[in-house]
Amino acid sequence: AAAAAAGPAAAAGLWSEVNRCGQNGDFARALKSVNKILQINKDDVTALQCKVVCLIQNGNFKEALSIINTHTKVLTSDIIAFEKAYCEYRLNRIESALKTIQSASQQTDKLKELYGQVLYRLERYDDCLAAYRDLIRNSQDEYEEERKTNLSAVVAAQSTWEKVVPEDLGLREATYELCYNSACALIGQGKLNEAMKKLQKAEELCRQSLSEDSDVTEEDIEAELAIIHGQMAYIMQLQGRTEDALQLYNQIIKLKPTDVGLLAVIANNIITINKDQNVFDSKKKVKLTNAEGVEHKLSKKQLQAIEFNKALLAMYTNQADQCRKLSASLQSQSPEHLLPVLIQAAQLCREKQHAKAVGLLQDFADQHPANAAEIKLTMAQLKIAQGSVTKACMILRSIEELQHKPGMVSALVTMYSHEEDIDSAIEVFTQAIQWYQQFQASQTRGGNPKSPVHLSLIREAANFKLKHGRKKEAISDLEELWKQNPKDVHTLAQLISAYSLVDPEKAKVLSKHLPSSDTMSLKVDVDALENSHGATYVRKKAGKLTGDNQQKEQGQGEVKKKKKKKKGKLPKNYDPKVTPDPERWLPMRERSYYRGRKKGKKKEQVGKGTQGSTTAGSSELDASRTASSPPTSPRPGSAAAVSATSNVIPPRHQKPAGAAATKKKQQQKKKKGSKGGW
């Protein structure tokens, strides 16, 4: 009896301990007391509830959910529905959390808040928007600002992923979270400049709000601003400022933020900037997209874009098998999506299997007619790359929804003209004009006015036919154009030219509609036109000179004849009485009176030939010493035979004729290559 009495007393003390620890936020200590209570009574509902709450506060969601599931008889859904749904939500079992919330008998405010979060994670934005509106309308507490922030996040997601034009919620953007969400909504609408201003305002508000807390460091502020800076960099990337975007992306990565979702998005965007360049950096960045928990932080479209880029990176790095594996997996997940099959076709083209790539695209176009247009455009591009222009034209003409478009008509006509298939080009024009005629007839009644695009096509068709000598075929088009605008003189002139070959009488009748020469004459100042800057290079026609002009020209000729060259400068010691030296233009050694420099006897004996040759008889070979030697070069046929007994240097010992010049060139090269100098 004493032991039995001690139980309730001990339990009361433990409950007071649990209460005190809960108020202090010490849930680990509270959990120990709760466990002691459960040892006394294992089916105590309140103790089990407290244990679940303590485990949730400590982050042990798996254990908390396990206790809920093992005590279903005691912990019914009415009692523990919120805690169970919250544990499932935190464990990323979103579908299970939704079922738990919907099965609860009473929808409390806490369950409604969680319901909104679950719908957002499931990307059911319309239902989520309605849930938050209901919460804001029917609740009044200190969490109203957080609910408005969540509401603006839903609107931003709709604008970004579903391309829905967001409605004005009338929210006062007093916090940086609201400014950031508003900027995201503007990005979804393509209003990039306005979005950048909102992000700058969000950055300013964030710094202000965080700097008020003395415990927050500059590093903490930069970490909080990372997501705002990441969105700024994304706007820069969309605007084509890739260098600025890349610099800001790398700054964020250096901060090492804890948000794996943010890091994955930034890494993916850097990979898209690198494309097929800087592949090594892309391979490093792709590791950040594989971090644990990324799939729970990003939307389905974000994850899909990352997977697409992984497949493209595998293609750029020549990992053919990996590329095929990733693209096949993506195609199985999204059979109607274009990118997986386009990546597979691109990989086949890199392997020079163009026919196989075209077949793959054709199969996809047959299976998914809604996306056939884009696929067929790619097929046509591959055919053009192979040189099969005619087959490419056939593929393009099979795209019914694009046949009448001016761009398609222009492309087909250009391609047919390149292949010199004028008949097919004219047929393309005819079909497009007929389509517009039928369309105009179905849209209007009575006068059936032509649209600008329709008239433009008729004009291009007429010009094309005239250019290629099909004047007879151009008549109907020109008549239609002139009918729409009778004041168009250019069209009338073309029509008269065309009729001149077919019906000259008709051409004469139409020529009466041409304006008279008086109305077409223009008052032009010929002299001013000839003297203008643009006419300076116009060659004038030569004409006969008469009268004063001819005399003036002759006078100019006489003046030119009288002009004399300037006299050259004479040397200072010039004496006009003395006859100049006739050999003054020759080098000193070649002059007849040159006797050489006076040197010592020993020096005279030093030869100037090759090593080992003798100098004896050098005076005999010196032509300048003989009185009969000519001043310049010897006369033809006057060369005397050299005595066989004379001491002549053999030809192989003599210097070559160009030896001096060669030596001089070598000295110049050596001088150029020398490291010293001024």
UniProtKB/TrEMBL annotation:
Function: Component of the signal recognition particle (SRP) complex, a ribonucleoprotein complex that mediates the cotranslational targeting of secretory and membrane proteins to the endoplasmic reticulum (ER). The SRP complex interacts with the signal sequence in nascent secretory and membrane proteins and directs them to the membrane of the ER. The SRP complex targets the ribosome-nascent chain complex to the SRP receptor (SR), which is anchored in the ER, where SR compaction and GTPase rearrangement drive cotranslational protein translocation into the ER.
GO molecular function: 7S RNA binding; ribosome binding
Region: Disordered, residue numbers: 539-678
Gene: Srp72
GO CC annotation terms, alphabetical: cytosol; endoplasmic reticulum; signal recognition particle, endoplasmic reticulum targeting
Biased composition (Low complexity): 624-641
Gene3D superfamilies to which the protein is assigned, alphabetical: Tetratricopeptide repeat domain
Name of this protein: Signal recognition particle subunit SRP72
Family membership noted in the UniProt record: Belongs to the SRP72 family.
Pfam families: SRP72 (PF08492), SRP_TPR_like (PF17004), TPR_8 (PF13181)
All residue ranges annotated as the Signal recognition particle SRP72 subunit RNA-binding domain in the record: 540-596
UniProt keyword Ubl conjugation, yes or no: yes
Cellular compartment(s): Cytoplasm; Endoplasmic reticulum
GO biological process: SRP-dependent cotranslational protein targeting to membrane
Highest taxon listed in the record's lineage: Eukaryota
UniProt keyword annotations, A-Z: Acetylation, Coiled coil, Cytoplasm, Endoplasmic reticulum, Isopeptide bond, Phosphoprotein, Repeat, Ribonucleoprotein, Signal recognition particle, TPR repeat, Ubl conjugation
Annotated TPR repeat ranges: 226-259
Keyword RNA-binding attributed: no
PANTHER family (UniProt xref): SIGNAL RECOGNITION PARTICLE 72 (PTHR14094), SIGNAL RECOGNITION PARTICLE SUBUNIT SRP72 (PTHR14094:SF9)
Coiled-coil regions, chain positions: 94-149
InterPro entries from the UniProt entry: Signal_recog_part_SRP72_RNA-bd, SRP72, SRP72_TPR-like, TPR-like_helical_dom_sf, TPR_rpt
Biased composition (Basic and acidic residues): 572-593
Bias kind Basic residues: ranges: 560-570, 662-678
